[in-house]
User: Fold this.
Amino acid sequence: MSQNLLPFYDESSKMRVDGFFVDERSRIIYFAKSFDGRLIRFSCKVKSPNIIGAKRFANQEIKVRLGIKKARITSLIGDELKPYYKMKESEGWQDGTLKNIRNAIEQIKPFFGDKFPYEINRDSLGEWYEWLDQTYPGQQKENAVKYMRNFCRYLAEKVVNGVPLLPAVPMISDPDRKALLAERHKKKFLIFSDEEFKKIHDVGNDVEKLVALFMYTMAARIEETLTLRFGSEILLDEALPLYRWRPGQNKAGHAGEHFLHPSLIEPLKAAMVRSESLGTSLVFPQKFDVSKPLKPAQIEWDGWRDRAALPWHWTSHTFRHTCLSNLFNDPNAPTALICKLYRVSIKVAMDTYIKPTREGREKMRDILKVQL
Assistant:
């Protein structure tokens, strides 16, 4: 053999596995054995020490090569991931979602890329979860599992020669989901007090201050905030200055408008002067390319958090979270109007944002007037 193939030894049993070899350089497992004087040799498409995957592939391939089983006319999973991503692009998802899909593909392809779709089953998924833990220690599996499930549905719907690429979609669930939901539920109860928001705002630079104030008063998400433009989303020349949102500019896909909070008017006017001097309509342009909006990753969140010195970890979404929680705690604020103006569903409001505070409970109590 031209390659330097070494006999494969199973580490658990310390015994040689008959018929299997390992390429010394690439660590790819090969099968080579004679059947009735005929040498059958092929790559098992996996690397050492994955002998289980190698045996599974070899059992299928030997049957095909000996004529016991007809060859499957199908492509590898790695080849199917490309058209899958193209399909997701065509569905019009926002950049943040497409980035999550790309990241998930990067976590799927190294493990499943050289396997066939029919090899996706409960056993291989269990091995994949273990591989994710080893390859991405401490990282959540949520997005990878979510888009693996979606990809499997895509394979099941794709028919080649009258046969679906994946005969049945196995049950795919994140083994860490319960712990993740418990931790997320705990974090969702953390919102800024008035003093904490002031501390965060005061230690920020001009951009950070305006970003924080806009999200805190208008309940905007970070992606929606950083893509704002004067004249389209921000209208300062109106009698009552407006924040206008369009379907493609917000995650909920809604259209509408809301009056800007009074505390935003002067900072936004100063930002408009800066933007006009740079020749852009963007409220938050990039430093070295003013034609592009600032990206969330370009904000120094860690440094900002260190300067604020709060005893707990807050994120950009905590500003929207705090705004909505404060609004829902005011019994005089119509819930339906809050949901409409701040682009949130009743279900999400109930699950996430409606958290009665002591002040809110007192106000609710005092609404009821009892005269005996």
Notes: The two ends are 100 Å apart (CA to CA). The chain has a mean pLDDT of 85.
